[in-house]
Amino acid sequence: MYAYIQGELTASTEEYIILDVAGIGYEIWCPNPLRYQTKQNETIKMFTYFYVREDTHMLYGFHQHEEKDLFKKLLNVSGIGPKNALSIVSQTSVHDFAQAIEQENDAYLTKFPGVGKKTARQMILDLKGKVDQWMQTSHDDVLSIEHDFTPNHHMFDEAVEALLALGYTKREIDQIAPNLKASSAESTDDLVKQGLQLLMR
């Protein structure tokens, strides 16, 4: 119904952003919405998918068209709902996901929250041969916005170790990992503080 929406970013939360288009605020659920914080009051474009079920009407948005296509393909997999699909899109690139599917890499697929071995095999069964074109897509083409905001791997790993040492479980940390990876924090300490704020909510 909506191919894309372009408007002024008026708010970004942990789950969605709001775009103002001619005085109408569109609530758009998207992967790693906090990465758009630095775009506040700027005009941005989101490729959108309107999800409609009997008791649910939600608008999902993506920085790149390929991310939207991945989300749609995941919704066609038995056992994958929009929440799981969005989580997967937020934690991988279409290139890496396609490679995992084509190589039948269960270990890579089961790292996503809510994806067990059975669901991983179902994803491979349903999607193998349908996403191989993305293996030719470079990371720069698909995740350009993320390079501006994602903390380096070393800093992220240090933050995770610090949170584990404070007594939080890996499962709890995995749930906030997308937000931490999308953070604009400039130091490990700042990243840990953000992690604690998220975990205490």
UniProtKB/TrEMBL annotation:
- SUPFAM superfamilies assigned: DNA helicase RuvA subunit, C-terminal domain, Nucleic acid-binding proteins, RuvA domain 2-like
**Pfam families in the record, alphabetically?**
HHH_5, RuvA_C, RuvA_N
Tell whether NADP is among the UniProt keywords. no
Name of the protein described by the UniProt record: Holliday junction branch migration complex subunit RuvA
The species this protein was found in: Alkalibacillus flavidus
Major localization class: cytoplasm
The subunit structure is: Homotetramer. Forms an RuvA(8)-RuvB(12)-Holliday junction (HJ) complex. HJ DNA is sandwiched between 2 RuvA tetramers; dsDNA enters through RuvA and exits via RuvB. An RuvB hexamer assembles on each DNA strand where it exits the tetramer. Each RuvB hexamer is contacted by two RuvA subunits (via domain III) on 2 adjacent RuvB subunits; this complex drives branch migration. In the full resolvosome a probable DNA-RuvA(4)-RuvB(12)-RuvC(2) complex forms which resolves the HJ.
* Helix-hairpin-helix DNA-binding motif class domain span: 72-91, 107-126
Q: Where is this region: Domain III?
A: 153-201
Purpose of the protein: The RuvA-RuvB-RuvC complex processes Holliday junction (HJ) DNA during genetic recombination and DNA repair, while the RuvA-RuvB complex plays an important role in the rescue of blocked DNA replication forks via replication fork reversal (RFR). RuvA specifically binds to HJ cruciform DNA, conferring on it an open structure. The RuvB hexamer acts as an ATP-dependent pump, pulling dsDNA into and through the RuvAB complex. HJ branch migration allows RuvC to scan DNA until it finds its consensus sequence, where it cleaves and resolves the cruciform DNA.
